[in-house]
Amino acid sequence: MEDTNENMRSGGWNILMKRRGKAVFSWLIITLFLTGFLIGAGCTEERPSGSDSAPPPAILVDYSRTGGIAGFEEHLVVFENGQAVYSAHSGSGVIMLDVATLEEVRTLLDSADFPNMSNEYPAESQGSDYITYVIMYQGKTVQTETTGVPEELAPLISLLDSILAFGNMGK
Questions:
Q1: Same domain assignment for residues 28 and 79
Q2: Separation CA 160–CA 45 (nearest Å)
Q3: Domains in the chain: how many in total?
Q4: E-strand spans in the chain?
Q5: Domain around 38
Q6: Are 41 and 125 in the same domain?
Q7: Which of 168, 163, 137, 165 is nearest to 83 (CA)?
Q8: How far apart, in whole angstroms, are the C-alpha atoms of residue 159 and residue 164?
Q9: CA-CA distance, 155 to 109, in Å (whole number)?
Q10: φ, ψ (nearest 5 deg) of residue 91
Q11: How far apart are alpha carbons 62 and 164 in whole angstroms?
Q12: pLDDT tens series, the chain, 171 aa
């Protein structure tokens, strides 16, 4: 027993410390390497001038329609550059509007006189199969329902619905 204690005091303990010291040293080297790598990641090169990506296009109109007997929910965002992103019961996707359609959307939005519209145009009476339409344009949101759609919004809603239908045709 005395030999074991002596061994622990001298050689055994030293061997254990040497092994632990190597592990600590290895861990320290790996940690310093990874820290240096993380600090330097992405910071080692200068970006060439003009390489910044362009800002995303501005949103022209954000449109959604929900409800009906089936309780569907469809959403369309038209960007200033003519790109339109949609999601519907059949899927989602991106389409590029032609110049004439994009101009028609702009014309109908302007002719609706959005800044002077009320925020809500509810249906004249309750209906379980009615559709709710929400249109956001230039920071203003207008919500309306089946039978409550104001005259000035009807052509716009019809056009936006047709864009949604066109997007869904490919699905």
A1: no
A2: 46
A3: 2
A4: 59-67, 72-79, 83-88, 91-96, 120-121, 131-137, 140-145
A5: 1-52
A6: no
A7: 163
A8: 9
A9: 10
A10: 140, -165
A11: 12
A12: 445 454 444 444 444 445 445 555 555 556 555 555 555 555 555 555 655 677 888 999 999 999 988 888 999 999 999 999 999 888 899 999 999 999 999 999 999 999 999 999 999 888 888 999 999 999 999 999 999 999 999 999 999 999 998 876 654
SS (H, E, C) 14-57: HHHHHHHHHHHHHHHHHHHHHHHHHHHCCCCCCCCCCCCCCCCC
43's CB contacts (< 8 A; 6+ apart) are none
Residues in the chain: 171
d(CA 169, CA 160): 14
CA nearest to 103, candidates 170, 159, 165, 167: 159
For the record, the structure tokens of 100 come out as: 């004439």
Among 13, 36, 52, identify where a domain stops.
Answer: 52
For the packed helices 154-169 and 99-111, what is the interaxial angle rounded to 10 degrees? 150
